[in-house]
Design brief:
Blueprint (H helix, E strand, L loop, with lengths): L1 E9 L4 H9 L4 E6 L6 E7 L2 H7 L10 E8 L6 H9 L6
């Protein structure tokens, strides 16, 4: 599974509608409105890199209200649950 984080600049008066339209696209797992340099952050999960080309410029980029996108591809996921599980392996002395 390939995960991409898409930073989205949107028209200020269309942020809620734009976010919902993006969230409704297949392959988009989450969309967050946020403060800072971008208006929306979308988490995209696909099975192949080629799917990103179909999804981001062809679908997300064409949603009404999207001004610009900047995509970051994730290499590895780190979470507290993953870390705790890794340290639990063999912890019982077996």
């Amino acid at each position: 599974m390939i995960t991409a984080i898409v930073m989205i600049h949107a028209e200020a008066d269309r942020i809620p509608e734009t976010a919902q339209a993006i969230a409704d696209i297949g392959g988009v797992s989450e969309v967050y409105s946020c403060a800072g340099d971008v208006d929306l952050v979308a988490i995209v999960r696909v099975t192949a890199h080629e799917d990103l080309a179909d999804l981001i410029p062809a679908k997300i980029g064409k949603v009404q209200g999207v001004v610009d996108t900047d995509t970051h591809i994730a290499f590895r996921s780190y979470s507290r649950a993953d870390t705790e599980t890794a340290f639990d392996i063999g912890a019982d002395g077996d």
